[in-house]
Design goal:
Elements (H helix, E strand, L loop, with lengths): L6 H13 L3 E5 L2 E6 L2 E8 L4 E5 L23 E5 L2 H6 L1 H16 L16 H9 L1 H9 L2 H12 L4 H16 L8
Antiparallel strand pairs: 1-2, 2-3, 3-4, 4-5
Helix pairs in contact: 4-5, 6-7
């Protein structure tokens, strides 16, 4: 929370989260809140909004219709976004209800049914490269499902075959090193 942007909103969200008896830690450089070591929520400060993210938000009921997926490929995470601190004050009771439901999800041991890696459609260009390079295929299969998914979505996101091929070629060294798309 070193950035000055969204400080008031972050403070208000933090107060709500701590009032719900959640444990606070810094994970991935952000304030993370858990219940019995299970991640429940996280505070995000983005360019145009501040958000309260729920790790298993896709399992929440969302009677207010305020949960949004942070990206088009998000399977579990859902966020409630705020443009100003007054919105947090106005929704405090709702936030606490959603947080209680998120804790109940943790207590019940529920988990999100993620699409498995075998459900991903590999672009033809990547299939051909894997068929021709056993070391690359072994390295790719050794990656975590999330890292594999990240690469496949990156490659598939290109509309033209030449762009897909270029993306694949640029990523081969990282795959061989066992790194994910966004790993350094």
């Amino acid at each position: 929370m070193n950035k000055t942007e969204w400080q008031e909103e972050r403070k208000k969200l933090r107060a709500v989260l701590l009032d719900c008896q959640l444990d606070e830690e810094v994970k991935w450089g952000k304030l993370c809140y858990s219940f019995q070591k299970g991640n429940v929520a996280m505070i995000f400060g983005m360019k145009t909004y501040c958000a309260l993210g729920f790790f298993k938000g896709s399992l929440l009921q969302d009677p207010e219709g305020i949960l949004v997926a942070p990206g088009e490929h998000s399977q579990a995470m859902r966020q409630i976004r705020f443009a100003q601190a007054q919105e947090i004050d106005a929704r405090e009771a709702t936030l606490k209800a959603y947080l209680q439901e998120a804790v109940d999800v943790e207590k019940a041991g529920l988990s999100v049914d993620f699409k498995e890696k075998h459900e991903l459609e590999y672009p033809e260009e990547f299939r051909l490269v894997l068929d021709d390079n056993a070391a690359l295929k072994a390295a790719f299969e050794a990656l975590t499902p999330g890292r594999q998914r990240g690469y496949i979505l990156h490659f598939s996101g290109a509309k033209q075959s030449s762009t897909r091929t270029s993306r694949i070629e640029k990523c081969i060294p990282s795959i061989l090193e066992g790194k994910g798309l966004n790993d350094r």
